[in-house]
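Recall from the previous chapter that SMILES is a line notation for molecules. Here it describes coenzyme A.
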Amino acid sequence: MAAFPGPDEADLVDALRRDPAWLPDLSLVAVDDSGLVVGHALLTRLRVGKGKGLALAPVAVAPEWQRKGVGELVVRAALTAAEDAGEKLVVVLGDPDYYGRFGFIPAQRHEVSGPFEVPEGYLQALTLPAYDGSPRGLCHYPEPFEAV
Ligand SMILES: CC(C)(COP(=O)(O)OP(=O)(O)OC[C@H]1O[C@@H](n2cnc3c(N)ncnc32)[C@H](O)[C@@H]1OP(=O)(O)O)[C@@H](O)C(=O)NCCC(=O)NCCS
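With both inputs in hand, we obtain:
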């Protein structure tokens, strides 16, 4: 996909697809009228402390389709699918100005932390209706993310 400057994100998606963390029902794509994929939002299995959460990444929209609501559409669809599946918590690493609109707040407020240094506020978490106080703790990302 052309949304990112290099091949890293496409390689990441390919690697995630082959990883046990891949959850086919929770990876959403947006297509144009001809069926071409113009955006995607992936949710993969993320270990959080001793419990199970989801990582939202990567989210990408083709350049000519950006700022038209496609990103918002695929992210909302992915979060709804996660909610319907009874998932409890979603973690994202990204711009708080963008992800705040979906209800993400700084992860530390849910006692969730990341394994890496990121700018203040960039690691964010969203609790879903099934959330019962867990999971919380340190996130262990699927192995393909370590190569990014
Ligand atoms: C970031 C991205 C996924 C958003 O998807 P999108 O379909 O373009 O966004 P939407 O149309 O749903 O929302 C548009 C709003 O999001 C915000 N926004 C869009 N891109 C943004 C960015 N890179 N950073 C912060 N906010 C952004 C703006 O507020 C924008 O509203 P505006 O056009 O009125 O200013 C997409 O632009 C993309 O793939 N960008 C390139 C890759 C990238 O920068 N990824 C970073 C992910 S955090």
